[in-house]
Amino acid sequence: MKAPRKKNAFPDTKVLTRIRETLSDPNYQGGNLALPQSASGPDRAKYQICQLIARYQREHGLLQKDIARQLGIDESRISDILRGRIEGFTLDRLIGYAEKLHPGLRVQVIAA
Fold first, then answer.
1. What is the DSSP letter of 84?
2. Domain 40-112 class?
3. Can you give the residue ranges of every domain in the chain?
4. Helix and strand element counts for the chain (H, E)
């Protein structure tokens, strides 16, 4: 019989691997709670920039406080960005943050 799992225990490597594989699958249909399907074009752009910043954080192994320091903003603001909470940001402000992380960033607008 397995020992009971401690409350608030961090998931083991197997569980984390399964979660990463699921979320990394390009066909994952889990949806997104942060961005409704009916989101406007500017909101979609803001969300994509938040995702770009979150990917930068993951790829560089940065803590929230590290990336907040790089961008010159409060940790609470970077927390909102990393969680896709776009309502408190303008598109140009998010682009400015992304440019600090990705010098030479190009933003392209495509008519649907």
1. T
2. mainly alpha
3. 40-112
4. 5, 0
